[in-house]
Amino acid sequence: MSYERDDFWTTTSNKQLNFLQHVKTILKVNGRCAIVVPDNVLFEGGAGEIIRKKMLEQMNCHTLLRLPTGIFYAGGVRANVLFFDKKPARTDGKAWTEKLWIYDFRTNQHFTLKENTLTRDHLDDFVKCYNTKNILKRKETEYFHAYSYDDLIKRDRVSLDIFWLKDDSLEDIENLPPPDIIAEEIKKIWNLL
Fold first, then answer.
1. What structural domains and CATH numbers belong to the chain?
2. pLDDT at 173 over 70
3. CA distance linking residue 85 with residue 125, whole number of Å
4. CA 96 to CA 117: how far, in whole Å?
5. Res 57 pLDDT > 90
6. What's the whole-number mean pLDDT along residues 44-48?
7. Where are the beta strands (DSSP E) in the chain?
8. Which letter does DSSP use for residue 120 in this model?
9. Do the beta carbons of residue 62 and residue 107 sit within 8 Å?
10. Which of 70, 86, 105, 187 could disulfide-link 27, Cβ–Cβ 3.0 to 4.6 Å?
11. Above 80 in pLDDT, residue 174?
12. How far apart are CA 23 and CA 30, in angstroms?
């Protein structure tokens, strides 16, 4: 089912994209938001591309936290936290987002709900990098990189699915799970999309 609303940027049947558009409509000017979104919101074409482009233009999308798998009840869920501020309409034609800072808390991180649970301490480095006192004075680190609006808008489908760290588990091909387990994981991920 697609929702066609005058206050949405585009019509789509994707519930996550519609929820993101809905949040945009209820947020007050200069309001701040942190919203958990699945990976497909970052790379889906069509309506997803339109929404990401409009968000970068009309909102200050300043931070993206890539979350590790294993922290939600549905195993294998790949999610992110997108931080943005709603801004008034611009008359100069410039985009509100100048830089999107991405913190990769996913690569080489392994959590489970029982044995290796995520705690607040695990997020200390992100909180330090986020720099709530002055986000204009952020510094790049191994896990925290900035991407300019111009670089983001040139990406295929305006994809925000960006990663740069090398996944150590990909190096260890000898210890991969059996193909049937890998196939089940792929099925679970595709069922979430």
1. 15-166 (3.40.50.150)
2. no
3. 22
4. 37
5. yes
6. 96
7. 32-38, 59-66, 79-86, 99-104, 144-148
8. G
9. no
10. 86
11. no
12. 13
Query: Please, what is the Cα angle at 68 between 115 and 37, to 5 degrees?
Result: 130
DSSP run (H or E) holding 24: helix 15-26
Rounded Cα gap, residues 90 and 96, in angstroms: 8
Q: SS3 for 126?
A: helix
pLDDT at 172 over 60: no
Token output for 107: 């690569």
Which has more pLDDT, 29 or 111? Answer: 29
φ and ψ at 74, to 5 degrees? -80, 110
Order of all β-strands in the sheet with 99-104 = 32-38, 79-86, 59-66, 99-104, 144-148
Calculate the average pLDDT of the chain. Answer: 90
Write out the two tokens for 163.
């990663």
CA distance 10 to 55: 12
User: pTM for this one?
Assistant: 0.84
Mapping DSSP to helix (H, G, I), strand (E, B) and coil, where does residue 49 land?
A: helix
